[in-house]
Design a protein that fits this description.
- The N and C termini lie far apart (46 Å).
- This protein is mainly alpha-helical and 163 residues long.
- About 7% of the residues have low confidence.
Length: 163
């Protein structure tokens, strides 16, 4: 049984990182309901494991790694392969978004994982190149290159200068 202090620490960690975990899951699964399920599973695993982290960087890296692994396993599951895939853009209410923003969002969702994840961590979640490199276990130059390539792909697809 956990103490009140441990519950408070878990609650704070959950509030701080749930959106990041959900966004990563959504970028993989392209389905909000499945992304919510994976995000919940990740935090249940953390709670059940009783793990503690020395600092926020370790916690963030663990959460992102476990989320990626859960999503990959989820995508391999035979039931998912039998279902018709749902487009994430149809699920997210962006009717009021500018057409250019919608185009960019769709282009980001179509990016290969190697480009999409570094771009999301850097541009959407606000992590620095160094932090993104640490989380993904890549060199900083590799992260910068992948972000630049992701932006170039988006520019070519959408004709929008900012990505």
């Amino acid at each position: 049984m956990q103490t009140a202090e441990q519950n408070d620490a878990f609650s704070a960690l959950y509030r701080q990182h749930i959106q990041t975990v959900y966004n990563i899951a959504l970028s993989y699964l392209k389905n909000p309901a499945e992304a919510e399920d994976v995000a919940s599973d990740v935090f249940v695993q953390l709670l059940e494991s009783g793990m503690t982290f020395a600092d926020d960087t370790q916690a963030r890296a663990w959460l992102i790694t476990v989320t990626r692994n859960r999503c990959k396993n989820h995508l391999k599951h035979w039931l998912r392969r039998r279902r018709a895939s749902e487009e994430v853009m149809e699920q997210i209410p962006v009717e009021s978004a500018a057409p250019e923003l919608r185009q960019v969002m769709e282009a980001v969702c179509r990016l290969p994982e190697r480009y999409r994840l570094p771009l999301m961590l850097f541009a959407v979640e606000g992590y620095s190149v160094r932090e993104t490199a640490e989380i993904l276990h890549l060199n900083e130059s590799t992260v910068r290159t992948r972000i630049a390539r992701a932006r170039e792909i988006i520019r070519k697809e959408t004709g929008v200068d900012e990505a």
